[in-house]
Amino acid sequence: MLCAVYKTRRKEGMYLYLPNKDKFDDVPEVLMNTFGKPQFVMLLAVKKHEKVAGIESETLQKALSEEGYYLQMPAQMEDWLADHRMNLGLSKKAEE
């Protein structure tokens, strides 16, 4: 199974996977409005990989066949300042 991968300029790390290139019919309008103009990244053979960008291949294939798309959200950013404060023996936040 091939899928088309798109990124957005609006949010780093957000990707939209579609079973067919440039066919956005199954993607809800509100999601497309939030996502903005999709930028094509690549075609990907999903079945050749156990995981695709951290997504289980089976999960991705199921979403593509049942929903018609898969939205990958960016990973949560770590709070480096809180980690640094903890390493210094301080509380995570200055107000604590």
Automatic annotation (TrEMBL):
YcgL domain span = 1-85
Q: What is this protein called?
A: YcgL domain-containing protein OPS25_01590
Species whose genome carries this gene: Alteromonas aquimaris
